[in-house]
Amino acid sequence: MKKAAETMFVCNSCGNEFSKWAGQCTACGEWNSLKEIKSSNFKLQSTKRNTEKKEVKNLSSLGEKKEESINIFSSNISEFDRVLGKGIVRGSVVLFAGEPGIGKSTLLTQLVGEIGGLYVAGEESAEQINLRVRRLGLKPERFDVLETNSIEEIGEVMERTNNVFKIVVVDSIQTMTTPTADAVGRASGIGSVNQIKASAFELIRLAKKTGSAVFIVGHVTKEGDIAGPKLLEHMVDTVLYFEGEKNGDLRILRVSKNRFGPTDEVGVFKMEEKGLREIKSDEINLISGNEEKIGSAITVVMEGTRPMMVEIQALVTESFAPMPTRVFSGIDNNRGRLLVAVAQKVLGMPMYKQDVYVSVTGGIRLDDTGSDLAIMGALWSSYKEKPLVLNPSVPRSGTSPLEKGRQTSGLVLVGEVSLLGEVKKVRGMEKREKEAKGVGRSTVYINSIRELKNLI
Ligand code: TYD
Ligand code: MG
Which of 88, 294, 391, 426 is buried deepest, with most CB atoms within 10 A? Predict the structure, then answer.
């Protein structure tokens, strides 16, 4: 007896999968968004149940394989290589996700400009790509541009040229369609879950078959709720997130999944007139000067394994609105609110009648709790209308006899702040202190935010 194909239901809005149909998605609350998918359509290849080993095409003994059978090549962009581990793996599929306008197309255009490849333009015209290539000063002869929304057309080109392209960029997955998606669900408009899944599935097959590394661009919104990247994470080999504040020029490339390397490295870029420029470690200094300012505090955060010095600025000012304003840019809203509450309780700042604005210079987004103490310090300094200064009675780094003669010109605050106002050490303290010392600053050691009072 033939077994019926397994069916499942996928929410077109959030991408969650269910075994039963329902009128409303229990995960995101969207009505009428569940679509049926026959999961057998997504099986890679039908493995024939054959007991003869040699007749099963996809079966191979690892003993017969060479040790280093993964073929890796450099992207010629060292920050990119560093994030990927060693470089780009042949036949791999990389999901390149980020908010619209963050610079995904720019960076991937630069990547193709470095090593040559096929750029599939689903959003822009070939002429727009041409303009960008020339504006970025890249070599046009390294580009083959395919203007299409059809996965079948991409397949045709990739199979026909078999392995000519070291890399293929598909910009973006949300603009691609494939007829195979129609077979598995009726509501399969461009950008729907069905189309995205089926298109990605086909691209993965093409990458494995031809050996080209495929970079799939996927847009995400701030809430991360767009059907797309989340849906594909488990299918692809590597997931990269390109992040940054749009009004700032710093961009961080993070890896959240990597079948071929570690996931703790980040790449740092700066968006400039001529595209994205790699930033070296010693250039990541986002502080605007060495003199101490009211409402400002310097901290060193860890981005992956590298320390990065940033300035936090706060403005605490009396509020005349019934609900005081809270604006946090570059730090998590909830974290910001929590620190404001701790400031009120432990430092006695009357936050209930104060508007609070906090921002991080350079427009980067911090998710390192080591920056808590500096946020607190900036709030305190703004509220007291005095700059934070080194006080000889407060213990700090750089006070060993060897360094006594050396003048330190400022302080650095590092530490996680607990609900009770205690200051806790965070990972990478040594690296952070070294970074601070490099610019002649001392890391201050305090155990409670109460001691901030000694720095004013
Ligand atoms: P883009 O790569 O198109 O973003 P995405 O593909 O992620 O949607 O980048 C868009 C922004 O980048 C745009 O607002 C202008 C800016 N930009 C520069 O500042 N310099 C440049 O050289 C380029 C090409 C873009
Ligand atoms: Mg784009």
Answer: 88
91-100, 182-191, 227-236: least confident range: 182-191
Ligand nearest to the CA of 98: 1
**Whole-number Å distance between alpha carbons of 76 and 316:** 46
The continuous run of DSSP H or E covering 242 comes out as: strand 238-243
Band of residue 43 on the pLDDT scale cut at 50, 70, 90: very low
Q: What is the pLDDT of residue 146?
A: 94
Question: Residues near 139 by Cβ (< 8 Å), separated by ≥ 6?
Answer: 113
Q: How confident is the model at residue 53 (pLDDT cuts 50, 70, 90)?
A: very low
CA of 105 to the centre of ligand 1 (A): 7
| Burial status of residue 320 (CB atoms within 10 A of its CB: 0-12, 13-18, 19 or more) | exposed
Average of per-residue pLDDT across 284-288: 62
Residue 334 neighbours by CB under 8 Å, 6+ apart:
none
Contacts of 189 (CB under 8 A, 6+ apart): 195
Supply the DSSP string of 71-84, one letter for each residue. -EE--S-HHHHHHH
CA of 229 to the centre of ligand 1 (A): 20
Ligand with minimal distance to 102 CA: 1
Q: Taking the CA of residue 143 as centre, how many other CA atoms within 13 Å lie in the half-sphere pointing to its CB?
A: 26
pLDDT-based confidence at residue 261 (cuts at 50, 70, 90): confident
Q: How far apart are CA 178 and CA 248, in angstroms?
A: 37
| H helix runs in 104-166, sequence order | 104-115, 126-135, 151-161
Q: In degrees, to the nearest 5, what angle opens at C-alpha 431 toward C-alphas 430 and 436?
A: 95
Cα-to-centroid distance, 295 and ligand 2 (Å)? 37
Ligand 1 neighbours by CB, cut-off 6 Å: 98, 100-106, 132, 136, 271, 273-275
Would the pLDDT of 48 be above 50?
no
Return phi, psi of residue 400, to 5°: -70, 155
Highest mean predicted confidence (pLDDT) among 125-139, 169-183, 241-255: 125-139
Q: What is the average per-residue pLDDT within 403-426?
A: 81
Which amino acid appears at position 198 of this protein? A
Q: Which residues face 250 on adjacent strands?
A: 270
Which residue's C-alpha comes closest to atom 10 of ligand 1? 101
119: Cβ–Cβ under 8 A, 6 or more apart, which residues? 108, 109, 112, 129, 143, 144, 145, 146, 169, 171
pLDDT at 189: 67
Q: Are 300 and 435 in contact (CB under 8 A)?
A: yes
CA 344 to CA 351: how far, in whole Å? 6
Q: What is the pLDDT of residue 125?
A: 93
The whole-number average pLDDT for the span 120-147 is: 94
